[in-house]
Amino acid sequence: MEINIFFNILLLIILFFVLNWSADFTVKNIKYLGVILKIRLFAFGILLGLITSLPEFFLGISATIDRAAALSVGNLLGGVIVILGFILGSILFLNKKIITDGKFSSLIPIALVIFSPILLGADGVYNFFDGLIMILLYVGLVFYLYYQNRFDHYPDSNKVKIINRSMTSKAIFFAILGMIGILISSNWIVEITLGLLNHVQVSKLVIGLVVFSIGTNLPEISIAVTSWRKNTAELSLSHLLSTSFTNTLILGILSILNPIVFKAGLPFWTTALFLGMTLIFLVVFYRSKKKLDSREGVILLTMYFLFTIINIYLGFL
Questions:
Q1: What is the per-residue pLDDT for 251?
Q2: Can you give the pLDDT at residue 160?
Q3: Are 183 and 292 a contacting pair, CB within 8 Å?
Q4: What does 252-307 look like in DSSP terms, one character per residue?
Q5: DSSP one-letter string for 32-62
Q6: The pTM is what?
Q7: Dist. CA 288–CA 309, nearest whole Å
Q8: CA–CA distance, 152 with 309 (Å, rounded to integer)
Q9: pLDDT for the residue 248
C-alpha cells in the first residue's frame, strides 16, 4: 500500500512537470505567432493570460467530469493569491520595481472582477446565472481595458507580414500539440489526486487552494525565475493581472457547464479574506509613487505564506 502511494505521488510530480511543460510549450509558440502577426501589445497580454490559464481550465474540466469541482474552485481562487502574492511578490523582491501609471481607474475594475467569485460563491454554489455574470464581467473588463489602452500598439500594426510561412505553420501545430498534452496530463492529475485523497483526510477545497494553485501556475513561476536570472522584468504586470482575472472567466465557464457546489466554510472565507487584503494592498501600492518596489513585494509574499500556512492547518482540522 505504501509503495503504491509513493508511486502515485512520484507520478503526480512527473505529471505536473508534463502539464506545465506543455503549457510553456504552447505559450512559446503562441508568443511567436503574436510577434509575427504584430498583435497589439494589450491584446497580446490578454492572449498570454488566456494561454497560461489553460492548465486551470483543463484541470477544472477534468475535476468537473470527475465530480470534484471543489478542487477547481480552490485552484482558481487560490491561484490568484499565488499569482499576485507569490509570483508578483517574488518579481518585485528580485527585480526591485515595476513602473505603473498610478491610476486607480486602471486597477480597481480589475480588482472587482477578480474578487467577484467570492461574492457570487458566498452561498456555496456557482450556478448558471453566477457563471453568466462572471463571463459578462470578464468581457466587459476586456472592452474597458481595450478602451483604456487603445493607443498602446506596435508600430505599423496594420501591416501584417508573415516572414516565414513554414515556421508559422509549425508554431500553430506545436501550440495545438501542447494543448493536447495539457488536457491529457490534467485529467491524469485529477484521477491520481482523487485516489490519494482516500488515504489523507484533507478538504478537496484546501488541496485545490494549496497544491493545484501552485502546480498549475508553474509556467508563470518559471518565467519569474528567468526574469530573476536575467535581471529584467520580463513578466509584465499586465500579464499577471490578465491571468488573474481570466480565472474568473474560467470559473464562469465551468459554472455554466455544470453547477459547482462546495462547502463555503472556513477555508473559503480565509481565502476571501486574504484575496481581499492582497487586492487592497495591490491597489494602494499601484497608486503610490507610480511603481511597485521590493518592500511592497515582501508584503505580498508575506500575505501568500500566511495564507498557505493557515490553509494547511485548516486542512488537517
A1: 92
A2: 46
A3: no
A4: HHHHHHS-EE---SHHHHHHHHHHHHHHHHHHHHHHGGGEEEHHHHHHHHHHHHHH
A5: HHHHHTT--HHHHHHHHHHHHTHHHHHHHHH
A6: 0.74
A7: 29
A8: 41
A9: 94
- Relative to beta strand 97-99, strand 291-293 is antiparallel
Number of domains in the chain: 1
Residues with Cβ within 8 Å of residue 69, at least 6 apart in sequence:
60, 63, 254, 258, 260, 261, 262
Q: What is the pLDDT of residue 155?
A: 46
- pLDDT averaged per 10 residues, the chain (length 317): 72 80 73 63 65 73 67 81 89 77 85 96 93 96 80 47 68 79 73 68 63 67 58 62 90 90 85 94 87 89 91 71
Helix (H, G, I), strand (E, B) or coil at 96: coil
Q: Is 29 helix (H, G, I), strand (E, B) or coil?
A: helix
Angle at 281 between CA 218 and CA 70, to 5 degrees: 45
* 291 close to 100: Cβ distance less than 8 angstroms: yes
Measured CA to CA, the distance from residue 141 to residue 53 in angstroms comes to: 17
Residue 161's Cα: distance from chain center in Å?
32
Helix 54-65 and helix 69-81, axial crossing angle in degrees, nearest 10: 160
What b/e readout covers 222-258, taking b as 16+ CB neighbours within 10 angstroms?
bbbeebbeeeebebbbbbbbbbbbbbbbbbbbbbbeb
Kindly report the CATH number assigned to the domain that includes residue 258.
1.20.1420.30
| Grid-cell match 519569474, residue found | 224
Orientation angle between helical segments 266-287 and 69-81, nearest 10 degrees: 30
Spatial separation of the C-alpha atoms in residues 119 and 291, rounded to whole Å: 29
Per the CB < 8 A criterion, the answer to whether 262 and 69 are in contact is: yes
All three cell numbers of 118, joined, read 467570492
At 104, the amino acid letter reads F
Domain that includes residue 296, residue range: 2-315
